[in-house]
Amino acid sequence: MNNKNIVQYFYEHQFLPALDQKMTAIEEELQHHQEQWINQFLETFKRICLRIREMQESDKKGPISLIHFCLLRRSMMDHSCYFIEAYSERWYENSAPLFEEYDAAWLYHSLPAFIQEMTESYEGFGESAKSTEFEAMMLKAVGCYHLFAVALLRAAMPEAILLEEYKSIKRELALRISIGEYTDLSEDVLVDYQGLQDVKEIRRRLEESKASSIAYGCYRNLMLPRVRAESNDLRYADFSGSHLQGSRFQRCDLMGTRWNGCLAPESDFRYSSLPEADFRHADLRGAVFDYVSGHEPRDHRRTGVMGVRFDHADLEGASFIGATLGRTSFEGANLQHALFSRRIKDSYSFSEEQIHSIRWVD
Asked: Which residues form the signal peptide (predicted)?
């Protein structure tokens, strides 16, 4: 085989299978240790907030508009830390930038061994591990590892913004917390909007067919009863604490959406896609989740690793007929008279009390 064919063969038959195996192993680790690793992250978040407050008290920094966890792919191969930057409204023009580190060794500890394994395998084909093609593969691997950091930070945000250290810092009306490449592609894990929002305009945009600019939106603590947001892209939108009773979210893309503590009894989510949706502590009495899907196709871009969460939600009388939720947690949820298909009885870790509370249908 010529060089081009060797590189392609290695990529398809050596690198991708090994990477998929590594991603599966990390996913399993995260399921077992996510609470521990979230708590470790929260300690880092407390530290960054204390640093920000110190700088604000000494007039070295104004209200914060961005906290960014910065990925440097090449550095991550032997240094498992994200650099943390906090900026006021003028961002990079800020005269007093703040830099901290978040040690993500929990995630990247296996990366050096993976790179060494790939190096030996690649050189076994007579190719140089110093080639641009091989380096591109290793940078791709770093990007795949990074997805788990994104998932963990996103899962930690509902707790992070309740910390007294966070509440104590001065913030702009909209504060973004993001993670990703330095001055390049990044992903918001939280948009914390404190100002008054035009509820009528938000309702109009949510109800508009194929509306734009509503994914990743902050719709927290709003009065939006009986909103009709059907067949729309609402990925990663945050409805935490909002009043949504009697609303419709049928056939929507609800991946990564947050509904923590929202009031949404009698709401309709039928046929929607909701991998990684977070309904913890929500009032969902009588809500309809028939034929929803919590699965996300496995690839190296979207993992759906955190699953769907209904922990401590009130799901009395809710319906899950035909739902295929995948990895889902109902810990502490009220499932009195909730409807589930009998065939999925063993698919989730229901408590004995929940099993006896559910109305099982064939």
From this structure: none
